């Protein structure tokens, strides 16, 4: 990312890699209930069509959270948290932690990176991350989507059981269900999120609107979260529906999108927009602010370790 002054020691790729994963886990811990509410809102139209009822179970972000707490207990808001943290450590480490390295790769080590180079770097790290973390994303979505019934029966009882059950019932390919829409989504998310953050932060520092500190990181992260939500919501809804579907429900991600359009109309692609924005906006703020501080702290610790006096 931009904003490092000459007197600062440049964070190493390892610092960025582990710092990104740690910051993403912190952000997930804080914003996970919003993500769970988003998933429930995104799939509820699908459930209504399957059952032949038009009764709205969830209404709005906080209405969804309140309904879940009332009917399933507060712990339901953190269904899939373990898989979510596994996902962030493997996923964010690659897509965010390797972004600067990928920029340098495309510019052959030079400092100047244009918009095309940044977009290419974002697309590349986003696609690479999916290849590593897709099974954890599938399990996370399945956990978030499952509703605890009156007798306590659940689709999956533990994270490891979910991995084993999906692999047994749907084959190993089931763990990579929705991989293509997820690659598409994360290429879009990475471009919107990282490139927006990178460029806004660069402009803020270039025109001396703020210094490279907390308000600057907050402003750039908030803008990145809004841009990402607007651009990525349609793909995100299709990804969620497809990954949560049983074997044979949809023949492909495109079939899932066409079924949504035919049964629910174009507005279905923006179901859960408010929780998506609340979640992505708050997630970006927490993640980028944490990431900048972790990078700075780890770099200073590394600098002190190498030159204690």
TrEMBL record:
Gene Ontology biological process: transmembrane transport
Keyword Transport in annotation: yes
GO CC list: mitochondrial inner membrane
Keywords of the record: Membrane, Mitochondrion, Mitochondrion inner membrane, Repeat, Transmembrane, Transmembrane helix, Transport
Compartments (UniProt record): Mitochondrion inner membrane
InterPro entries (alphabetical): MCP (IPR002067), MCP_dom_sf (IPR023395), MCP_transmembrane (IPR018108), Mito_Metabolite_Transporter (IPR050391)
PROSITE patterns assigned to the protein according to its UniProt record, in alphabetical order: SOLCAR
Spans of repeat Solcar: 11-105, 113-203, 212-297
One Pfam family named in its UniProt record: Mito_carr
The keyword NADP is annotated on this UniProt entry: no
Topology of this chain in the membrane: Multi-pass membrane protein
PANTHER family: MITOCHONDRIAL DICARBOXYLATE CARRIER-RELATED
Protein name according to UniProt: Dicarboxylate carrier UCP2
Organism, as annotated: Sphaeramia orbicularis (orbiculate cardinalfish)
Gene that encodes it: LOC115433137
């Amino acid at each position: 990312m931009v904003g490092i002054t000459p007197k600062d020691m440049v964070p190493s790729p390892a610092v960025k890699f582990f710092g990104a994963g740690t910051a993403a886990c912190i952000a997930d811990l804080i914003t996970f209930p919003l993500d769970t509410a988003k998933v429930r809102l995104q799939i509820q139209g699908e459930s209504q069509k399957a059952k032949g009822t038009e009764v709205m179970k969830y209404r709005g972000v906080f209405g969804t959270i309140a309904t879940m707490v009332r009917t399933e207990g507060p712990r339901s808001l953190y269904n899939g948290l373990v898989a979510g943290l596994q996902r962030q450590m493997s996923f964010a480490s690659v897509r965010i932690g390797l972004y600067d390295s990928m920029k340098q790769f495309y510019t052959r080590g030079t400092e100047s990176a244009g918009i095309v180079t940044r977009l290419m770097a974002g697309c590349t790290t986003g696609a690479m991350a999916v290849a590593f973390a897709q099974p954890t994303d599938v399990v996370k979505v399945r956990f978030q989507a499952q509703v605890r019934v009156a007798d306590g029966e659940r689709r999956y009882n533990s994270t490891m059981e979910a991995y084993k059950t999906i692999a047994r019932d749907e084959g190993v390919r089931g763990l990579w269900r929705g991989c293509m829409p997820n690659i598409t989504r994360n290429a879009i998310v990475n471009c919107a999120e990282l490139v927006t953050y990178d460029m806004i932060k660069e402009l803020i520092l270039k025109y001396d609107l703020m210094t490279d500190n907390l308000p600057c990181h907050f402003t750039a992260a908030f803008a990145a979260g809004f841009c990402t939500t607007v651009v990525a919501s349609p793909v995100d809804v299709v990804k969620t529906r497809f990954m949560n579907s049983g074997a044979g429900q949809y023949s492909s991600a495109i079939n899932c999108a066409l079924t949504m359009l035919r049964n629910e109309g174009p507005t279905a692609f923006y179901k859960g927009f408010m929780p998506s924005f609340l979640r992505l906006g708050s997630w970006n703020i927490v993640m980028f602010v944490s990431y900048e501080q972790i990078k700075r702290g780890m770099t200073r610790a590394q600098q002190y370790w190498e030159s204690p006096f």
